[in-house]
Amino acid sequence: MPKGIKYPLTRLFLLASLFMMLPCQLSAQLKYTIKGVIKDSVSGETLIGASVRILEENKGTSTNTYGFYSISTGSGELTIQISYIGYRTLSKKINVLANQNLNFELAPTSQLREVVINSQSSKEQIIRPQMGLDKLNMEGVKNIPVLLGERDILKTIQLLPGIKSAGEGNSGFYVRGGSSDQNLILLDEANVYNASHLLGFFSTFNSDAIKDVSVYKGGMPAQYGGRLASVVDITMNEGNRKEYTAEGGIGLIASRLKVEGPINKGKGSFMVSGRRTYADLFLKLSPDTTLRKTVLYFYDFNVKANYKLNDNNTIYVSGYFGKDQLGLNKSFYFNWGNSTATIRWNHLFSNKLFSNTSLIYSDYDYAIENLSEGSDFRVTSIIRDWNLKQDYQYFAASNHTVRFGLNANHHKIRPGEIISSSTSDINSKVIASRQGVELAAYISDEWKVSNYLSINYGLRTSSFGLLGPGSIKTYNDTGSAIDSKEYQKGEVVKSYLNLEPRLAASLQLDNNSSVKASLTRNTQNLHLLSNSTASLPTDTWVMSSNNIKPEIADQASLGYYRNFFNDNFEFSTELYYKKMENQIDYKNAANLRGNADVESELLFGKGRAYGAELFLKKKQGRYNGWIAYTISRTERSFAGIDHGNYFPARQDRTHDLSLVNIYNPGKRWTLSATFVYNTGNAVTYPSGKYQLDGHTEYLYSERNGYRMPEYHRLDFGATLNGKANKRFKSSWTFSVYNLYNRKNAYIVEFKDNPEDPGRTQAVQTSLFGIIPSVTWNFKY
Question: Which value, in Å, is the radius of gyration of the alpha carbons in the chain?
């Protein structure tokens, strides 16, 4: 264990006790507690974030990740109201004379006519202090047109303000000036390190298996940590608790199937979902013998099960397994993939204290093989986590909800191992593995001070220790090694301790509007090294060390929120400023792959990002959708680049606009269209050239001093639902990606003009023109 961790964590839990004393005193005058679980009446799936209110006392709460709620009330005859977007609101008279366990089931509306990217109740964004939160509803996601008809939650969140695509053919994204590795992507609490298929054209998440998606881009709660920019918290479906069902789809590039049903009806359920592309099957029909021997496909597999042992204990088991395979005529082979597994135990200590214990495994690996005779080799790399989490949620009073917990995560990174045969001209090479331990403790309290003022305040303490065994070098500012020391297994090389305060407040101006503010600090101890324009599966992860300090970000946000026209419209605007320390960049011509001394290639500096986000959403009716606009700047400063002056970061874009439109002309048809526009990424272009041994070499001056061409695209989609049938449902989804065939720049290269070698020409490469697709969906 890194030195100096034990005492601060002990002190933090003493602080937790003090936090809890206040709400306990406040709750002494409250007599009774009502608790229970809110579910879907059709499938039995628990509902996350359902609103629970006691109307006579004007008190409310919402269900947690497992559909559980707890609320304190006075005695007498009261009205409890349960509501959730896309479901009929339920009101029931109850006579409170003792603590009660009340479970409710909500019925879905007969026809969902809401574009629900935010599954919170209509007043949630006004009342609660949380800022920068968007919640995706999978019913809304399925109507948005995407590439080749594959629903993609990571592509969908890029249509939200403050979240920018990393580029066409790339599932990476940038949030409020952060780089792509500064996003924490969780699948049932397991860290997903590479969330892409087919080199970024699709994400690893099969939408059929997904229940809920929460995106935190500012003011993230204290229970989250380890990344600077955002959290994408994805929860898988638990499975239908009432009947066995099967659903799926057959498209031009992939097919998918999901099966779910009850386990010992009323006690538990399961869900199994799979997806596979079949481009390789079509290649086998090609008359070209080279193409027939090409391998190109991916698959993913999701599984989840739960079982209720008794009223106070429930067990959940879930897993994800995905792989990409790419091979060329038995001469080259490349595969990469993720594996995750989560075991969770929910325990109810009392009517007010809810506990969740999680053991989590995450693994990302890749392998590259060159099978050419005389130069054969195999390169492998892994990053693997074992994570133990203990979370508590204490419903202290109707105006206090306290969360606290501990987290211990062991990381192992094997950057690369090259294995070659005795006849190969490539030498075998092993880059030493690195191990580290990340420990954290947190506490937070959401306190409704009055009917108009709510505060969420908390503290997260995080510690990281780089562990032996291994030979560890120390580098100076020029990248030269000045020391080397051998460490034994488990010996601490370097440790860091950081305090991360979190504060958010909401002041309700009236029943339909509020202003909010937040201040947060985040730290990050795992860093992705990539100097390419796209995130590749072979990019290298490194840990904080004696040379690499934890990245730190302080963010301040201010926002205004308003609902109007009977909560049918929502408007919000958020301003943010983010200051970043210990940011990482690279020397010119840095070698990042297969380099045992990769830390010598790094530069360290600071960054800043600031901007404004505007969001207008219409939620109900035949026509609905949203407009998202962001104006922002993102800059970095390094002593070894441009004399230490601030320069635009790669992800800096001045303007980013998304328009999403969905129209229901009748019961069977749904039409949709999305339009996106953004300023081109900042890039470094050559400012001169010279000849060396008959080859043209280019000179580069200011970093990221130029812009890629502006990007814009229009997509269209249409869904035709089959005729209603009690046992079988089907639909056809038609979509057109890039409707007006815009040739957006993917890469711009500079070459000598073949007709006049003294002149230089820019050559633009585009990935996609217009692409139509069709998918048949079914459910039985």
Answer: 27
CA 449 to chain centre: 32
The span from the CA of 242 to the CA of 257, in Å, is: 19
Block residue for tokens 């638990």: 238
CA 154 from chain center: how many Å? Answer: 7
Distance of CA 78 to the CA centre of its chain: 40
Distance between CA atoms of 588 and 599, rounded to whole angstroms? 14
Ramachandran quadrant class, 52 (left: phi over 0; alpha: psi -120 to 50; beta: rest)? beta
Closest Cα partner for 561 from 161, 239, 247? 161
Per the DSSP assignment, residues forming a β-bridge with 235 are 212
How far is Cα 336 from Cα 727, in angstroms, rounded to an integer? 39
- The larger pLDDT score, comparing residue 2 to residue 52, is at 52
Tell me which CATH code domain 6-116 carries.
Answer: 2.60.40.1120
Q: Domain coordinates of the chain in residue numbers?
A: 6-116, 133-779
Asked whether the beta carbons of 505 and 518 are under 8 A apart, the reply is yes
| Phi, psi for 411 (deg, rounded to 5) | -105, 140
pLDDT at 20 over 50: no
- Residue 679 backbone phi and psi in degrees, to 5: -60, 145
| Tens of pLDDT, residues 365-386 | 988 888 777 778 888 889 999 9
Q: In Å, how far from its chain's centre is CA 460? A: 20
DSSP 96-153: ESS-EE--EEEPBPSS-----S--S-TTHHHHS---SEEEE-HHHHTTS--GGG---H
What contacts 410, CB < 8 A, 6 or more positions away?
Answer: 385, 386, 387, 435, 436, 437, 438
Output the average pLDDT for the chain: 87
Residue 93 structure tokens = 């008279």
Burial bucket for residue 92 (CB in 10 Å: 0-12, 13-18, 19+): exposed
Q: How far apart are CA 617 and CA 342, in angstroms?
A: 35
Tell me which amino acid residue 413 is.
Answer: I
Q: Look at residue 370 in the predicted model and tell me its pLDDT.
A: 82
- pLDDT digits over 692-740, tens only? 777 777 777 788 888 889 999 999 999 998 887 778 889 899 999 999 9
Predicted TM-score of the model (pTM): 0.90
Average pLDDT over residues 339-365: 96
According to DSSP, residue 619 is labeled: -
What's the fold here for domain 133-779?
Maltoporin; Chain A (2.40.170)
Instruction: Quote the pLDDT of residue 626.
Output: 93
Half-sphere exposure of 3 (CA within 13 A, CB side): 5
Give the dihedral sign, CA 591/596/600/603. positive
* Percent of the chain with pLDDT strictly greater than 70: 93
3-class DSSP state of 374: coil
Question: E strand or H helix at 17, and its extent?
Answer: helix 6-26
DSSP state at residue 549: P
**At residue 220, does pLDDT exceed 70?**
yes
Burial class of residue 690 (count of CB atoms within 10 Å of its CB; 0-12, 13-18, 19+)? exposed
